[in-house]
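Summary of Year 1 activities. Much of the first year was spent building the evaluation harness for sequence design. The harness presents a backbone, in tokenized form, and records the residue chosen at every position. We chose the following record to illustrate the format because it has been used consistently in internal testing since the harness was completed.
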């Protein structure tokens, strides 16, 4: 479904991604794990068109994404839940969700997706007329995920969904990520909480200073001694 090959991305003189290659098959949860500054968020931003690579290819459903503007990439079926939530603080929960569906014209379909978002996140339904800026961190994270789901993505990119959340909420968010996947959405997950990410993912890639240094079945990587030492605090 998504194939990234030999991706090189620079920030000025800084070589942020060095020949990064990985694949995401339909129906999978694939996670990219690694320390801060390893290039995880850069990878997602490059896929969704927010950054332009110096070289390399990104193919999604057999279409080359390099050079396609970000809003067109959303239309092709890729949703992005950005790091730090980035909700529109001065708009209501409902307005944020409606904005997520801006590329769609099917009124009935939008209603159905909205119902599904409220099923996943009942708290958003309770607060639909509240300004997004007044929500708690956990609720804003739910809203960011819900907003991305409103475009009916085939592939959902998620950047650090557990960041800054209390442990109980982290569990809840990961459970919902799993449910979204089980309902047919493929997920590429960037996460510092390697333990939680490996527990729900099918495949994992470990990034270090812009390079893929390990890859494989998520359950197997969770048992890997190097991964345990570096990322699972064991």
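For this record, the design step produced the sequence shown next.
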């Amino acid at each position: 479904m998504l194939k990234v090959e030999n991706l090189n991305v620079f920030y000025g003189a800084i070589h942020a991604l060095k020949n990064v290659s990985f694949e995401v098959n339909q129906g999978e949860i694939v996670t990219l794990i690694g320390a801060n500054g390893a290039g995880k968020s850069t990878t997602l931003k490059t896929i969704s068109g927010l950054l332009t690579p110096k070289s390399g290819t990104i193919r999604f459903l057999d279409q080359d994404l390099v050079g396609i503007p970000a809003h067109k990439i959303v239309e092709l079926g890729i949703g992005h839940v950005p790091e730090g939530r980035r909700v529109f603080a001065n708009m209501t929960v409902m307005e944020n969700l409606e904005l997520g569906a801006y590329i769609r014209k099917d009124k009935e379909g939008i209603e159905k997706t909205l119902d599904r978002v409220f099923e996943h996140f009942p708290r958003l339904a309770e607060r639909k007329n509240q300004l997004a800026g007044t929500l708690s961190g956990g609720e804003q994270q739910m809203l960011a995920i819900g907003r991305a789901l409103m475009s009916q993505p085939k592939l959902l990119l998620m950047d650090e969904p557990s960041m800054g959340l209390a442990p109980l909420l982290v569990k809840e968010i990961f459970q919902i990520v799993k449910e979204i996947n089980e309902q047919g959405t493929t997920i590429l997950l960037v996460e510092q909480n390697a333990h939680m990410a490996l527990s729900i993912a099918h495949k994992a890639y470990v990034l270090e200073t812009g390079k893929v240094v390990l890859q494989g079945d998520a359950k197997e990587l969770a048992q890997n001694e190097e991964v345990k030492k570096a990322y699972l605090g064991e």
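Strands lie at 2-11, 14-24, 29-33, 55-60, 63-64, 78-81, 155-159, 186-190, 203-208, 211-217. Quantitative recovery figures across the full test set are reported in Table 2.
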